[in-house]
């Protein structure tokens, strides 16, 4: 039974995240999608809203027999991963520019907790430039999001605009 944590901000979840989760499901029996609760950041969506969106869109992906759970965590990722008895941390790498930061995190996490491996996965090329940050920027400036985020996420983003 191999369990992995896929941590992130998921503000909001993108099609790139879903692509990585589908790929991760081919390697692990269980993946916990772990949303970082970061009191220093002002997210677009609350933790509950992100949990809810993830729960909904994960129903639409191909996960085979892999069990997917959505959770949130505070503090050190490796402490959370240990508490969940996870074997690995999954991170997506889109381009060389991601690699430096991801390598630093992976090595720091290994130093903190050598028993947990980090597994880097590449999303489909289609998503190699998709990030939550750019998605929010494009959306706020009136750009088209089709194909970048699930339809439900786009709808919830529109709801934010209406309510603001
Ligand atoms: O989607 P993101 O924002 O790139 O995810 C970053 C995340 C959540 C993986 C990273 O910030 C993290 O693990 N934070 C938890 C705090 C921690 O463990 N810091 C030490 C990492 S070396």
Descriptive notes:
The radius of gyration is 15 Å and the shape is globular. Strands 3-2-1-4-5 form a 5-stranded parallel sheet, with helices on both faces. Helices cover 42% and strands 18% of the residues. The chain is built from 6 helices and 5 strands. Bound molecules: 4'-phosphopantetheine. 4'-phosphopantetheine binds next to strand 1 and helix 4.
Briefly summarize what is shown.
With 164 residues, this protein is α/β, with parallel strands linked by helices. It is 42% helix and 18% strand. A five-stranded parallel sheet has the order 3-2-1-4-5, sandwiched between helices.
Give the helices and strands, then pairings.
Layout: E1 3-8, H1 15-25, E2 30-36, H2 47-58, E3 67-73, H3 77-83, E4 88-92, H4 96-112, E5 117-121, H5 132-140, H6 151-163
Parallel strand pairs: 1-2, 1-4, 2-3, 4-5
Features:
alpha/beta, 42% helix, binds 4'-phosphopantetheine
Which stretches are low in confidence, meaning pLDDT under 50 for 5 or more residues running? none
Q: How many whole angstroms does the radius of gyration measure?
A: 15 Å
Unique ligands? 4'-phosphopantetheine
Measure the end-to-end span.
45 Å
Along the chain, the helix and strand elements come as EHEHEHEHEHH
Helix percentage: 40-55%
Task: Provide the residue-averaged pLDDT.
Answer: 96
Q: The biggest beta sheet, please?
A: 5 strands, parallel
Oligomeric status:
single chain
């Amino acid at each position: 039974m191999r369990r992995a944590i896929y941590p992130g901000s998921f503000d909001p979840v993108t099609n790139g995240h879903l692509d990585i989760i589908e790929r991760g499901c081919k390697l692990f029996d269980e993946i916990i999608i772990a949303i970082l609760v970061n009191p220093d950041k002002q997210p677009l969506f609350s933790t509950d809203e992100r949990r809810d969106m993830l729960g909904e869109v994960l129903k639409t992906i191909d996960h085979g027999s892999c069990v997917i759970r959505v959770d949130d965590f505070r503090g050190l990722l490796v402490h959370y991963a240990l508490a969940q008895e996870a074997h690995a941390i999954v991170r997506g790498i889109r381009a060389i520019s991601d690699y430096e930061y991801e390598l630093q995190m992976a090595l720091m996490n290994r130093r903190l907790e050598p028993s947990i491996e980090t597994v880097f996965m590449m999303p489909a090329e289609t998503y190699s430039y998709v990030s939550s940050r750019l998605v929010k920027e494009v959306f706020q400036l009136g750009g088209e999001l089709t194909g970048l985020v699930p339809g439900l996420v786009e709808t919830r983003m529109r709801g934010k605009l209406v309510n603001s």
